[in-house]
Amino acid sequence: MSFGIKLLIKGDYACFTRPEMKVERVSYDAMTPSAARGILEAIHWKPAIRWVIDRIHVLAPIRFDNIRRNEIGSKISAVSVRSAMKAGSVQGLHLLVDEDRQQRAMMALRHVVYGVEAHLEMTPKAGPEDTPVKHIEMARRRAEKGQHFHQPCLGVREFPADVTLVETFPESRLPETDRNRDLGWMLYDIDYAKGREAQFFRARLQDGVIDVARARDKGLAQ
Protein backbone atom coordinates (compact mmCIF):
# COMPACT_ATOMS: atom_id res chain seq x y z
CA MET A 1 0.00 0.00 0.00
CA SER A 2 1.33 3.50 -0.85
CA PHE A 3 0.93 6.62 1.28
CA GLY A 4 0.83 9.95 -0.48
CA ILE A 5 1.43 13.66 -0.04
CA LYS A 6 0.57 16.82 -2.00
CA LEU A 7 2.85 19.84 -2.15
CA LEU A 8 2.33 23.26 -3.72
CA ILE A 9 5.70 24.52 -5.00
CA LYS A 10 6.35 28.10 -6.12
CA GLY A 11 9.34 30.17 -7.13
CA ASP A 12 10.41 33.31 -8.94
CA TYR A 13 12.77 31.35 -11.20
CA ALA A 14 13.48 27.71 -12.03
CA CYS A 15 15.87 25.84 -14.29
CA PHE A 16 15.48 22.11 -14.85
CA THR A 17 18.46 21.70 -17.12
CA ARG A 18 18.27 19.65 -20.28
CA PRO A 19 21.26 17.24 -20.25
CA GLU A 20 21.74 17.53 -24.02
CA MET A 21 22.78 21.17 -23.58
CA LYS A 22 26.51 21.01 -22.90
CA VAL A 23 27.58 24.61 -22.22
CA GLU A 24 24.62 26.90 -21.64
CA ARG A 25 21.82 25.91 -19.28
CA VAL A 26 18.43 25.51 -20.96
CA SER A 27 15.44 24.46 -18.87
CA TYR A 28 12.78 21.91 -19.69
CA ASP A 29 9.30 23.40 -20.04
CA ALA A 30 8.27 21.99 -16.66
CA MET A 31 9.62 20.44 -13.48
CA THR A 32 11.23 17.01 -13.85
CA PRO A 33 10.36 14.09 -11.53
CA SER A 34 13.94 14.02 -10.23
CA ALA A 35 13.70 17.71 -9.24
CA ALA A 36 10.39 17.04 -7.47
CA ARG A 37 11.96 14.09 -5.64
CA GLY A 38 14.85 16.32 -4.57
CA ILE A 39 12.42 18.77 -2.95
CA LEU A 40 10.70 15.96 -1.05
CA GLU A 41 14.04 14.59 0.13
CA ALA A 42 15.02 18.05 1.35
CA ILE A 43 11.95 17.96 3.60
CA HIS A 44 12.20 14.36 4.82
CA TRP A 45 14.49 11.51 3.86
CA LYS A 46 15.77 8.36 5.52
CA PRO A 47 17.52 5.28 4.07
CA ALA A 48 14.34 3.37 4.91
CA ILE A 49 12.16 5.25 2.39
CA ARG A 50 12.08 6.15 -1.29
CA TRP A 51 9.95 8.95 -2.72
CA VAL A 52 8.09 8.22 -5.96
CA ILE A 53 6.53 11.04 -8.00
CA ASP A 54 3.04 10.32 -9.36
CA ARG A 55 1.85 13.54 -10.99
CA ILE A 56 3.14 17.05 -11.62
CA HIS A 57 0.52 19.79 -12.09
CA VAL A 58 1.66 22.85 -14.05
CA LEU A 59 -0.40 25.64 -12.47
CA ALA A 60 1.15 28.77 -14.01
CA PRO A 61 1.90 29.88 -17.59
CA ILE A 62 5.15 28.50 -19.03
CA ARG A 63 7.39 31.52 -19.47
CA PHE A 64 11.11 31.71 -20.16
CA ASP A 65 13.65 34.37 -19.30
CA ASN A 66 17.25 34.68 -20.48
CA ILE A 67 19.66 35.22 -17.59
CA ARG A 68 23.42 35.73 -17.57
CA ARG A 69 25.30 34.73 -14.44
CA ASN A 70 28.77 33.94 -13.19
CA GLU A 71 29.70 30.28 -12.76
CA ILE A 72 32.84 28.37 -11.88
CA GLY A 73 34.41 26.83 -14.98
CA SER A 74 35.77 23.68 -13.29
CA LYS A 75 35.44 21.51 -10.21
CA ILE A 76 37.80 19.74 -7.85
CA SER A 77 38.74 16.38 -9.34
CA ALA A 78 37.83 13.08 -7.67
CA VAL A 79 41.52 12.14 -7.72
CA SER A 80 42.39 15.21 -5.65
CA VAL A 81 39.61 14.44 -3.19
CA ARG A 82 40.77 10.84 -2.74
CA SER A 83 44.35 12.02 -2.21
CA ALA A 84 43.22 14.50 0.43
CA MET A 85 41.22 11.79 2.21
CA LYS A 86 44.21 9.47 2.31
CA ALA A 87 46.49 12.24 3.55
CA GLY A 88 43.98 13.41 6.13
CA SER A 89 44.49 17.02 5.03
CA VAL A 90 42.58 19.47 2.83
CA GLN A 91 45.67 21.54 2.12
CA GLY A 92 45.68 22.51 -1.56
CA LEU A 93 42.13 21.20 -2.04
CA HIS A 94 40.56 24.39 -3.37
CA LEU A 95 39.68 26.33 -6.49
CA LEU A 96 40.71 29.87 -7.34
CA VAL A 97 37.19 31.19 -7.76
CA ASP A 98 38.02 34.60 -9.22
CA GLU A 99 40.50 33.18 -11.75
CA ASP A 100 38.10 30.41 -12.80
CA ARG A 101 34.93 32.47 -13.06
CA GLN A 102 32.99 32.36 -16.35
CA GLN A 103 29.87 34.17 -17.50
CA ARG A 104 27.24 31.89 -18.98
CA ALA A 105 23.72 32.25 -20.30
CA MET A 106 20.74 30.46 -18.82
CA MET A 107 17.30 29.99 -20.34
CA ALA A 108 15.24 29.76 -17.15
CA LEU A 109 11.56 29.54 -16.29
CA ARG A 110 10.04 32.41 -14.33
CA HIS A 111 7.14 32.71 -11.88
CA VAL A 112 6.56 28.95 -11.66
CA VAL A 113 3.84 27.18 -9.70
CA TYR A 114 3.61 23.39 -9.49
CA GLY A 115 1.49 20.88 -7.67
CA VAL A 116 3.30 17.63 -6.90
CA GLU A 117 1.61 14.38 -5.94
CA ALA A 118 3.94 11.69 -4.60
CA HIS A 119 4.02 8.61 -2.40
CA LEU A 120 6.72 6.83 -0.47
CA GLU A 121 7.81 3.21 -0.54
CA MET A 122 9.89 1.28 1.94
CA THR A 123 13.39 0.15 0.98
CA PRO A 124 15.33 -2.98 2.05
CA LYS A 125 17.07 -0.77 4.64
CA ALA A 126 13.83 -0.27 6.59
CA GLY A 127 13.91 -1.57 10.14
CA PRO A 128 11.11 -2.99 12.32
CA GLU A 129 10.35 0.51 13.62
CA ASP A 130 9.97 1.95 10.11
CA THR A 131 6.44 2.06 8.71
CA PRO A 132 4.90 4.00 5.82
CA VAL A 133 2.43 5.68 8.18
CA LYS A 134 5.24 6.85 10.46
CA HIS A 135 7.30 8.38 7.68
CA ILE A 136 4.43 9.99 5.77
CA GLU A 137 3.24 11.66 8.97
CA MET A 138 6.78 12.88 9.69
CA ALA A 139 6.99 14.30 6.17
CA ARG A 140 3.61 16.00 6.49
CA ARG A 141 4.50 17.58 9.84
CA ARG A 142 7.84 18.86 8.55
CA ALA A 143 6.26 20.27 5.37
CA GLU A 144 3.49 21.93 7.37
CA LYS A 145 6.03 23.60 9.69
CA GLY A 146 8.35 24.60 6.83
CA GLN A 147 11.16 22.36 8.12
CA HIS A 148 13.79 20.90 5.82
CA PHE A 149 17.29 19.43 5.98
CA HIS A 150 18.49 21.90 3.37
CA GLN A 151 16.85 24.63 1.29
CA PRO A 152 14.59 23.08 -1.39
CA CYS A 153 15.44 24.50 -4.80
CA LEU A 154 14.00 24.65 -8.29
CA GLY A 155 16.70 22.97 -10.32
CA VAL A 156 19.68 25.03 -9.12
CA ARG A 157 20.56 26.23 -5.62
CA GLU A 158 20.21 29.90 -6.57
CA PHE A 159 16.47 29.43 -7.15
CA PRO A 160 14.83 28.57 -3.79
CA ALA A 161 11.46 26.84 -3.70
CA ASP A 162 8.52 27.94 -1.56
CA VAL A 163 6.86 24.68 -0.47
CA THR A 164 3.43 24.32 1.14
CA LEU A 165 1.58 21.19 2.25
CA VAL A 166 -1.93 21.16 0.73
CA GLU A 167 -4.94 18.91 0.41
CA THR A 168 -6.07 20.34 -2.92
CA PHE A 169 -4.31 22.45 -5.54
CA PRO A 170 -5.48 25.93 -6.57
CA GLU A 171 -7.07 26.47 -9.95
CA SER A 172 -4.55 26.35 -12.75
CA ARG A 173 -3.66 29.57 -14.60
CA LEU A 174 -2.11 27.63 -17.48
CA PRO A 175 -3.64 28.84 -20.77
CA GLU A 176 -5.96 26.42 -22.54
CA THR A 177 -3.63 26.36 -25.55
CA ASP A 178 -0.83 24.92 -23.38
CA ARG A 179 -2.79 22.41 -21.33
CA ASN A 180 -2.39 19.56 -23.80
CA ARG A 181 1.13 19.40 -25.19
CA ASP A 182 3.81 16.88 -26.01
CA LEU A 183 6.88 17.99 -24.04
CA GLY A 184 9.16 15.45 -25.67
CA TRP A 185 11.69 13.26 -23.87
CA MET A 186 12.33 14.38 -20.31
CA LEU A 187 14.74 13.19 -17.65
CA TYR A 188 12.94 10.93 -15.19
CA ASP A 189 15.77 10.22 -12.75
CA ILE A 190 19.31 8.93 -12.30
CA ASP A 191 19.68 5.23 -11.41
CA TYR A 192 22.65 5.25 -9.03
CA ALA A 193 22.47 1.46 -8.63
CA LYS A 194 23.40 1.14 -12.31
CA GLY A 195 26.38 3.48 -12.40
CA ARG A 196 24.41 6.77 -12.55
CA GLU A 197 22.42 5.66 -15.58
CA ALA A 198 20.02 8.33 -16.85
CA GLN A 199 16.37 7.36 -17.32
CA PHE A 200 14.00 9.24 -19.61
CA PHE A 201 10.27 9.21 -20.30
CA ARG A 202 7.93 10.76 -22.85
CA ALA A 203 6.43 13.74 -21.04
CA ARG A 204 2.97 14.92 -22.02
CA LEU A 205 0.76 17.60 -20.56
CA GLN A 206 -2.82 16.37 -20.38
CA ASP A 207 -5.16 19.02 -19.02
CA GLY A 208 -2.11 20.64 -17.44
CA VAL A 209 -0.87 17.49 -15.69
CA ILE A 210 2.19 15.32 -16.35
CA ASP A 211 1.09 11.83 -15.34
CA VAL A 212 4.44 10.38 -14.28
CA ALA A 213 2.92 7.19 -12.87
CA ARG A 214 1.27 6.37 -16.19
CA ALA A 215 4.49 7.04 -18.10
CA ARG A 216 6.43 4.89 -15.63
CA ASP A 217 3.98 2.01 -16.15
CA LYS A 218 4.58 2.20 -19.90
CA GLY A 219 8.32 1.86 -19.36
CA LEU A 220 11.31 4.17 -19.11
CA ALA A 221 14.03 4.66 -21.68
CA GLN A 222 17.78 4.79 -20.98
From TrEMBL:
Gene3D superfamilies reported for this sequence: 3.30.70.2660
Keyword set, alphabetical order: Antiviral defense, Endonuclease, Hydrolase, Nuclease, RNA-binding
Domain of life: Bacteria
Enzyme class: hydrolase
Pfam families noted in UniProt: Cas_Cas5d (PF09704)
GO MF annotation list: endonuclease activity; hydrolase activity; RNA binding
TM ranges: none
CDD domains on file: Cas5_I-C
Its EC number(s): 3.1.-.-
Stored InterPro entries: CRISPR-assoc_prot_Cas5, CRISPR-assoc_prot_Cas5_N, CRISPR-assoc_prot_Cas5d
Any GO BP annotation: defense response to virus
Role description: CRISPR (clustered regularly interspaced short palindromic repeat) is an adaptive immune system that provides protection against mobile genetic elements (viruses, transposable elements and conjugative plasmids). CRISPR clusters contain spacers, sequences complementary to antecedent mobile elements, and target invading nucleic acids. CRISPR clusters are transcribed and processed into CRISPR RNA (crRNA).
Family: Belongs to the CRISPR-associated protein Cas5 family. Subtype I-C/Dvulg subfamily.
NCBIfam families listed in its UniProt record: cas_Cas5d, CRISPR_cas5
Name of the protein described by the UniProt record: pre-crRNA processing endonuclease
Organism annotation: Paenirhodobacter populi
Originating gene: cas5c
